[in-house]
Design a protein that fits this description.
Elements (H helix, E strand, L loop, with lengths): L5 H18 L6 H8 L3 H7 L3 H16 L2 H8 L4 H29 L4 H27 L9 H11 L2 H10 L4 H16 L2
Helix pairs in contact: 1-2, 1-4, 1-6, 4-6, 4-7, 5-6, 6-7, 6-10, 7-8
Length: 194
Amino acid sequence: MSSGDPATRARILRAARELIEEQRGTGPSMAEVAKRAGTSRQALYLHFADRTALFLEVTRDADATARTPAEQRRVDEAPTARDALAEAVALQCRLKPRLHAVATALDTLRRADDAAGAAWEEREQARLTRCEHVTRRLAEEDALSAEWTPATAARLMWALTSQRVWEDLVLGQGWSADQYTRHVTDLLERALLR
């Protein structure tokens, strides 16, 4: 955890996110982040032990800013598991545009940059865990088709709500947010539900 000034920490996170989004193909060095944040490298290391810690915190901050507790409650407190499934897809559709730049940058960087890879893996594992919550609820409410286990159903849900699928359909094929939400929800319901 950081032991420095919260305002400096916020500037560092903002600078790192800007650089990650701008550079896309190469991750920023700690020196570049310190320079952009208007702080010394020593001050940067008071807040973040290394690039992995910095990248992890940038993605956590981006996700926390986009995924508000109220947004997540719509999934968690949906009246039925089927409603939770639809809310989860709709939430992903609302989050993707807000997180697109940082997610795309991390997706590109993760193949050659261990820090970006760690940040990407943490984000994707968290998303898979949220899918598992929905599919376990489907099973508990006896709504999950017998062909699926909650774990395999969660992986299908995770794949169909991925950044890449959203990007291909919405940005690449011109689907509206409504089309994406409706068609992905329909596909998951047809595949997973009794």
